[in-house]
Amino acid sequence: MANYADFNLGIYFAGLEGDNPPPYPVTFAGLEAAARERLEHRLFDYVAGGAGDEHTQRGNVSAFERWGIVPRMLSGAAERDLSIELFGHRMPTPLLMSPIGVIGIMTDDEHGDLATAAASASSGVPMVASTLMQDPMEDVAAALGDTPGFFQLYTPNDREVAESFVRRAEAAGFAGIVVTLDTWTLGYRPRDLQHATFPQLRGYCLANYFSDPVFRSRLAVSPEEDPVAATMHWAATFGSPTLTWDDLAWLRGLTDLPLLLKGICHPDDVRRARDGGVDGIYCSNHGGRQAATAPALEMLPGVVDAADGMPVVFDSGPRSGPDIVKALALGATAVGIGRPYGYGAAIGGQAGIEFVLSCLLAEADLTMGLGGYASVADLTRDALVRLG
Ligand SMILES: Cc1cc2nc3c(=O)[nH]c(=O)nc-3n(C[C@H](O)[C@H](O)[C@H](O)COP(=O)(O)O)c2cc1C
Ligand SMILES: O=C(O)C(=O)c1ccccc1
Description:
Layout: H1 7-16, H2 28-38, H3 41-48, H4 55-65, E1 67-69, E2 84-86, E3 89-91, E4 95-97, H5 112-123, E5 128-129, H6 137-142, E6 150-153, H7 159-172, E7 176-180, H8 190-195, H9 207-210, H10 213-217, H11 227-237, H12 248-253, E8 259-262, H13 267-275, E9 280-283, H14 300-307, E10 312-314, H15 321-329, E11 334-337, H16 339-371, E12 384-386
Helix pairs in contact: 2-3, 2-16, 5-16, 13-14, 15-16
């Protein structure tokens, strides 16, 4: 992947050589419009849409507009270091690619999980690989190169399947497990309801299940012989509605790898998670796709305070470099992005994802430079001012 520090200059100099615009849009709005052109319209709506009237996802984005980064002068930020430390790994950037359970079918070749893994390998931006993959997790892990990856677990209502997934993720070499708690049942998603469509119910992105020996042992006939029956078994066991804090000991006991809980936004839940021995919090409202009206960025400072030094990953709403810088200044250890890289995958596969990451990182780098912040550690709440 191109060095993001030279990214903008590279585009301007290429333009000098003639009519040579960048291959993909450089803004989120442009990416979304381009992805809308490329994706089958129901799949586009599935990705772009969310819960209820979609105020929640719009609120995720507008929450960032209420903060300004106050530039400091003569502060020696000519060179920036965007690297962070996460679970003992030095990461070159503060970004993560959040799990997208349909990324597999967002590329033309329907190997979007592998394209994401390859972009992760080339960029050093870790992939949080969804339980819902079009290619099995072992193949995805093998494409990550030297970049650490995380496996996101949706706990099925069949503990032995969950245990099998975690064993496989460990054996495949993932560096941590992210358990998503906010999707034990589906939110009210008007676009998908109107189209009467849901990708996984049509059998997409179930490779981890169909390749799993425990899942397969539950079926009368194999998924190859009867994919519809296998898909219906997935639907019947996907969620785990009765899971409570009492089950955290079971989750913690599944692995010695770093364990993060995704979907936590309340400080009391952070404390319960910490008391239960988790290693990190993934503060998120699922991109506004699950609990309608749930806040995200507004909760981040309280989550960080309650985490008391434990790493906090934040996602839901960042669309630009300044957004990333603001989330870091509010205390996030790392920032996850969802739809932006999904649209990159839709318009250009691996190259499209790499381009989107380059734009975000180039803009975050410039934002830090022009703001006078040389490193992520220099970004504190003092860097921000509340607007309007
Ligand atoms: C199409 C789509 C599929 C998603 N699938 C998953 C998933 O499989 N597992 C999960 O934990 N989160 C999933 N998410 C939520 C993302 O991980 C992330 O929390 C959210 O997209 C962040 O918001 P953003 O899209 O505004 O960046 C999905 C999001 C989208 C848009
Ligand atoms: O669409 C999603 O956001 C998601 O995470 C999901 C939830 C259930 C099944 C498949 C994907």
